[in-house]
Amino acid sequence: MNRAWIELDEAALEHNIRRYQRLLPAGCEIMGVVKADAYGHGAKAVARSLEKWGIRHFATATLDEAVKLREYGVKGEILILGYTDPGSFHLLWKWDLTQTATCPAHAGALEQYGRLHGTPLKVHIAVDTGMHRIGFLPEDLGEIQRLYQSSGLDVTGIYSHLCVADTEEEEDVSFSRRQAEIFRRVVEDLQNRGLELGKIHLLSSYAAVNYPEYAYDYARLGILMFGVKSSPGDYLRRDLDPRPVMTLKAHITSVREIGPGESVSYGRVFRAEKPTKIASVAIGYADGIPRCLSGGKLRAIVRGQYVHGAGRICMDQLMLDVTGVEDVQTGDEAVFIGRESGAVIYAGELAENSGSITNELFSRLGARLEGRQYTT
User: Fold this and answer.
1) Would you call 39 a catalytic residue per the annotation?
2) Whole-model pTM over 0.85
3) Contacts of 171 (CB under 8 A, 6+ apart)
4) Cβ 86 vs Cβ 66: under 8 Å
5) DSSP for 243-262, written as a single string
6) Does the active-site annotation cover 35?
7) Are 73 and 44 contacting, i.e. CB atoms less than 8 angstroms apart?
8) What is the chain's pLDDT, residue by residue, as a tens digit (376 residues)?
């Protein structure tokens, strides 16, 4: 690799998937959520692996992401979880995609297109059970029923989302159970009206572990599929023995000695107190390393030893204090997420130190990072 790259461990991904498959009740299948380029891991590689292991249902956030999956050769159901503009509805039909009806107005536009063109579009109905992001309200039963019976739509499923499924706080548990009960009532009321609802799904990664009693047809697996939690303190009822899938590395491009009082990087915020060895590395905030980790809050592994950042992180480069690491030279690798010689840095460390979560950290890893390929 040239400068900075991502390596993927397919065996770790399969381990995580198999653990979930054993956890889920009979009849509940995995839907692989590969939005945001599979949380930065590479949608092409991840989706192909999931297909190889028998997974036939996928979810993206956007139309463009879904079309790319088709272009990669991914078959089976692809559900778009987010909004698609009416000007692009023709692509839903062209690529055989399933669109979420995000609200009554959006559903109406989808229905109008289907009637006008004589090509009913596949949709899943989103139900707002308390997150207040997208979806029909529980009292919209009459409108939901009408959409199921409309000639302009092919409604193939209905779903909702538990927004605090990752904690064991009593208030949050009560809220999650209330959401699940609201969804259950909506489902049962629609079924009592004689409707065939298609695929029903409520569980995300955390909910599948913490609330398996609310399983329906799918469990939408996202961040936990990649062997990490969103935040280290997130609650899981069971130990999944997760194995991180991603390793993030970059090449050292220069090594130099500086003396006491000399400074490093923009703003001269780092000043050496003693003779110091500085390594420049070909990765920066444009590649997804948060700039707020400047000032020594960033760790890396070089030649099996932990080292810290020195000075401000730049757009394309950053500097490490490698004093005490013997024989460091240009071309050596620095590991920012992953293992080397018994040392390990988890993605959760970078995310927590930057005041964020791994979902954001992964999804902001830049497109110019090379790799996203499996290592053997």
Assistant:
1) no
2) yes
3) none
4) no
5) ---EEEEEEEEEEEEE-TT-
6) yes
7) no
8) 689 999 999 999 999 999 999 999 999 999 999 999 999 999 999 999 999 999 999 999 999 999 999 999 999 999 999 999 999 999 999 999 999 999 999 999 999 999 999 999 999 999 999 999 999 999 999 999 999 999 999 999 999 999 999 999 999 999 999 999 999 999 999 999 999 999 999 999 999 999 999 999 999 999 999 999 999 999 999 999 999 999 999 999 999 999 999 999 999 999 999 999 999 999 999 999 999 999 889 999 999 999 999 999 999 999 999 999 999 999 999 999 999 999 999 999 999 999 999 999 999 999 999 998 888 6
List the catalytic residue out of 35, 44, 68, 122.
35
Residue that has been written with the tokens 């090594």 in this structure: 255
How many Cα neighbours within 13 Å face the side chain of 250? 26
Write down the catalytic residue from 52, 72, 94, 266: 266
Q: How far apart are CA 319 and CA 112, in angstroms?
A: 56
